[in-house]
Amino acid sequence: MDVDSLMPKLFQLNAIFTTSEAKAVGLSKYYLNKLVAAGEVARFGTGRAGVQLWTNESYSNDDFLAIQLRYPKAVISGQTALSWWHLIDRQFTYLDLTVPRGYRIPTEFERHIVSIHHVDERYYPIGLTSVRTEEDSGSLNIYDPERSLIDAFRFKTIAKYDRNQAVRNYF
């Protein structure tokens, strides 16, 4: 089977997918390696429990989804969430992630500027919602606008100007 005949199966997958998702549409690991050699697919890394992650080079690389797949309890929050909900005009300059206290996540990413916030387990699910990405390549965990406003006053990394603008735009 040549690479061109594998492409329809590849387009059934999200931008980032696991080996088991590829097998579900008929792409074995052998064919995934053929697609890697052709430059259509790249090995992305290893997710939780040793699951191999792949990225579909035919789609744009969705960094938020990549982090979500690697660290399922990471929630987009803070300045990033305020920007997502259009409560502030400024684009986020770093990625704010909130995780429950005790959840292990690296503080340094190769291609990202990430700020990790740890919260108590009982406050973690408050305001948690799931949204689809623009490419509909997967769902992201993000805090709703109300929780994002609370985080704006909790996080010291958010400027006073952004806090005030977020409150004005919310109301």
- The total of helices stands at 7
Q: State the secondary-structure class.
A: alpha+beta
Q: Which percent band covers the strand fraction?
A: 15-25%
Largest sheet: 3 strands, antiparallel
Q: What is the N-to-C order of secondary-structure elements (H for helix, E for strand)?
A: HEHHEEHEHEEEEHH
What is the radius of gyration computed over CA atoms, rounded to a whole number of angstroms? 18 Å
Q: In one word, what is the shape?
A: elongated
- Strand arrangement within the widest β-sheet reads 1-3-2
Number of strands: 8
Low-pLDDT regions: none
Helical content band? 25-40%
State mean pLDDT (0 to 100 scale): 81
- What is the first-to-last residue Cα distance? 57 Å
Can you describe this structure in just a few lines?
This protein is an alpha+beta fold and 171 residues long. It is 35% helix and 22% strand. The protein has helices spanning 3-10, 19-24, 29-38, 63-70, 78-84, 145-154, 160-170, and strands spanning 16-18, 41-46, 52-56, 75-76, 95-100, 114-119, 128-132, 139-143.
